[in-house]
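Known limitations

Files may contain more than one protein. Parsers should not assume a single record per file. Below, a two-record file is shown to illustrate correct handling: read the sequence, read the token line, then continue until end of file.
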Amino acid sequence: MKQLRSLLVLMLMFILCTGFIGKKNDKEKAVYAFGVAASFSDTLVYYTDIQLLDSVQLDKNKFLPKRQEYSRQLKEYVQYQLVHDNYTTMIYFSDKKEKLQKRFDKTLKKYQKDTIFSLHLIPTADFKFKKPQE
């Protein structure tokens, strides 16, 4: 009887330990993002490729921490490097690249549908999102 009890306690400890290890790996998922910059007074729409964000984890509500900082990075790039003022920037993110790819295609299709807009890709070599300072 004591051996059975000891065996059950050992199995329970093993199950609990492996359960926590699995949860830790879930938090370490990669996070992907792309950005769009558009203006109400201009027909140019800039967008980035889907990029892997460096050392970033989504919070418990599946939101990107400091997402306004990533949006600001794109806004500053458009304003100072491409010399376009008054652009509104949006950042889309997900820990699932396939899901974000669908959102990327849907967003671009929306702008391509209207022939007024001219889409311009910002190459990853020119602009890459950086992790904001803590």
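...continuing to the second record:
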Amino acid sequence: MYLALSPGAVGIHPATLEDAISAAVAGGFGGLELSPQTIKERGVDVVKGLLAEANLAPAGFGLSVDFRQEVAPTDAQIQEFAEGVELAAAVGFTRCMTWIMPCSNERPFEANFEFHVERLQPLAKILQDNGVGFGLEFVGPKTLRDSQTYPFVYDIPGMTKLAEAVGPEVGFLVDSFHWYCTGSNVEDLAAVPLSKVVYVHINDAQPGKTPEEQVDNQRALPAETGVIDAKAFLGTLKSIGYDGPLVAEPFLDLSNLASDAERAVLTGNAGRKMLSVAFD
């Protein structure tokens, strides 16, 4: 397992690829998330060269197609996505991910399940054809699930069924915060085959709240509060053989810090603290 930087998740908004790489290096990360659009703008060889020079692994990229709208993505949008996936794969990216809303005001469970399968299947096929794993993130907080009329997939057992329906190579993005909010079930996590763990987010939860009381956009940096059991979470992932990226996504306001480098250092140190708590 290695720490990777998702710049936007910690309030870093680099103007250039070089700025993103500088932040990742400053924070001591081993990998970096990039968008296919960045690769298109700079070129495969340039991106590969800059990442290699900085000793950064291509960690992952987010799904760029907005599949959640009532109007389906156009053929042109699907084609643009396919071209971006090819570029990302050429750089060495093997992981793509997106989140799944755990509730809906428009569609009951079965209709929503069919909707997601229909929208995600063609995208999953493009990723599979390019050797890129596809991780679907379950979103756990009950406070969010209760905010809309119809509940949807929000935990590992539910996401297992959805991922299987979308495609045989589709797996999970497992986030420690969402895992905690569903009840910290080690057995469910241990039962996930290694091939299905595509990506991992590491965060901590707010003290003084039960898992059911946590709010989705009110998280903490990895190992900041000690609410989430780092040993149980990372130890279980290690036991099934996961050796991919660990990415902090706390959605914190770090604008009080003077620079992107400081934000990256704070995030990197938090990630290393979580690894230390789990394994030292």
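Parsers that stop after the first record will miss the second one. For reference, the second record is described as follows. The first strand starts at residue 2 and ends at 5.
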